[in-house]
Amino acid sequence: MYQIGEIIEVNSKRYQIVKAIGKGKGGYSFLALLDGKYYTLKQIHHEPCSYYSFGNKIEAEQNDYQRLVKLPILLPKLIEIDFEKEIIIKEYIDGETISSLLEKGEDVSKYIGQLESWLPTLYRAGLNIDYYPTNFIVKKEEDRIYYIDYECNQYHPEWDFETWGKGYWTKEKPIS
Question: N or C: less crowded end of the chain, CB within 10 Å?
């Protein structure tokens, strides 16, 4: 994948890779720099995922963002998409993931409360998001959580926060 210092051209803009941030079921994320400002560069990958099936990932990201941005939840702004290269540029949210805080033994109950305040809106919209703790960052200067993934799916009780996600936030389920 990309190397530190590598220049990646996205829609005629030249982003410099600063560091790898992580890998999800849909892509690799990198901290990237353009004109003195940090962004998240997500490169879609097509590696198999045994527990999730994808259609067109780049279009799904765009469509999911369009659904979520209308709701009163915090998420990074979508800056641009390069459909040919399957790259998404998002606003960079500086902070730690909920999973990182849990690994350090920190109490995340106030962030559970923040997420739970979003649930009525999400459920009324007929949506679940991916409640796994790696998908949430606490923005340092605000002490608020941001949902940094754009994935959302049709609501199903089996995959809502109370049934599936909350256990990962409370150590009832191991994070792996």
Answer: C
The CA distance from 64 to 175, in Å, is 25
For the whole model, what pTM was predicted? 0.91
CB neighbourhood size of 128 (10 A): 23
What is the CA 80 to chain-centroid distance, rounded? 15
Q: Cα–Cα distance between 41 and 100 in angstroms, integer?
A: 20
* 118 neighbors 75 (Cβ within 8 angstroms): no
Q: Is 1 exposed, middle or buried (0-12, 13-18, 19+ CB in 10 A)?
A: exposed
Please name which of 74, 79, 99 lies closest in space to residue 22, comparing C-alpha atoms. Answer: 99
Q: How many residues does the chain have?
A: 176
SS3 category, 31: strand
pLDDT in tens, 49-87: 555 556 688 999 999 999 999 999 999 999 999 999 999
- Residues whose CB falls within 8 Å of the CB of residue 83, separated by 6 or more in sequence, listed in order: 58
